[in-house]
Write a structure and sequence with these properties.
The structure is a single chain. The chain has 303 residues and is an alpha/beta fold. It has helices at 3-12, 15-26, 86-100, 133-136, 162-165, 172-185, 198-209, 213-219, 230-275, 280-287, 291-298, and strands at residues 38-40, 44-49, 52-57, 60-66, 69-79, 114-120, 153-156. Strand 6, helix 4 (133-136) and strand 7 form a beta-alpha-beta unit.
Length: 303
């Protein structure tokens, strides 16, 4: 399992975040699904192919149950880049869950629907790959009436409006706001609102942005409770950047000084060898420097 997948699951696997994402995207922020009504669903499902048992794995999946009645299975898939095979992948995930309802232990239970949400976090461009099964598969025109089509539930997080972002009540609101701002201006103005799941939120942002200072800020805090919102996080990230920049500047300065010292010594050696009658090309080989540089040191032209 990749580090990116793990980070995404850490935040979205919380019941309050999961319910908030579904309510915000499907029900305009209305609290239709409550966190206490969710139960974890094993993200892996087995299927048989080529005579072998294989597995497929969702990013996050939960079953929605109310009054002991299972209402639906809901899955979330995360994408940072468009995927041409996404309709096929979603169909596989949903099909595996429907297949599980046919197992002997589930035979007498009511059947329930399966819904998958695809969250696209790319902020540089819109999703430009197939959204439907017919778009993803080459179906002959006369054959289309006999091939049921299926459309994925795609949500472009970075292209949401500010009003849509406000529908979220959990820490996912901070994540969505970050990507919306990055898309709008390329910059990010942090929010002072308190984070409930600080570590999971910062881990997600670290992986998505490839800026590990977000996660490092939390890991390096002596008291984990001292990091409470993105304003404090960004203050520490900027301080860390300035500190790292000064350290790198000192290292570069020492490196440059060392190189200058080595060149000065090579220049003295070159002039000594020249006074002894050696030719510039022989001197260049002796001091391990380009012939042009040695000629510049000696004040002579090309032979």
């Amino acid at each position: 399992m990749g580090r990116r997948d793990i980070a995404e699951k850490l935040l979205e696997a919380y019941d309050d975040v999961f319910a908030d994402i579904v309510n915000g995207l499907l029900f305009d922020g209305e609290a239709v699904i409550l966190p206490e009504e969710l139960e974890d669903q094993t993200p892996r499902a087995a299927y048989k192919a080529d005579g072998q048992l294989r597995e497929i794995e969702r990013d996050v999946a939960k079953r929605w149950t109310r009054s002991s009645i299972r209402i639906a299975c809901i899955g979330i898939e995360n994408q940072t880049a468009p995927d041409a095979d996404m309709p096929l992948r979603v169909l596989g995930y949903d099909g595996a869950e429907y297949r599980a309802q046919l197992l002997r232990e589930n035979r007498d239970r009511p059947r329930y629907p399966v819904v998958t949400l695809v969250l696209y976090f790319g902020h540089e461009k819109h999703w430009d790959k197939p959204l439907t099964l017919h778009e993803a598969v080459n179906v002959p025109e006369r054959f289309k009436p006999f091939v049921p089509d299926m459309r994925i539930n795609l949500f472009e997080i970075a292209f949401m409006s500010r009003e849509q972002v406000k529908r979220f009540k959990s820490d996912f609101r901070v994540v969505a706001d970050y990507f919306v701002q990055k898309r709008e201006s390329g910059d990010y103005v942090p929010s002072p609102e308190r984070l409930e799941h600080v570590q999971a939120t910062l881990q997600l942002l670290s992986v998505m942005t490839r800026d590990h200072r977000f996660e490092e800020v939390y890991n390096e805090s002596a008291d984990k409770g001292e990091v409470r919102n993105m304003c404090e996080v960004l203050d520490r990230v900027e301080l860390k950047g300035r500190t790292r920049g000064r350290a790198e500047g000192r290292m570069e300065g020492r490196a440059e000084g060392k190189l200058e010292g080595m060149d000065e010594q090579a220049k003295i050696t070159a002039r000594t060898l020249h006074d002894m009658g050696l030719k510039p090309d022989d001197i260049a080989r002796a001091v391990h420097r380009p012939i042009g540089l040695v000629q510049e040191w000696l004040g002579v032209g090309m032979a």
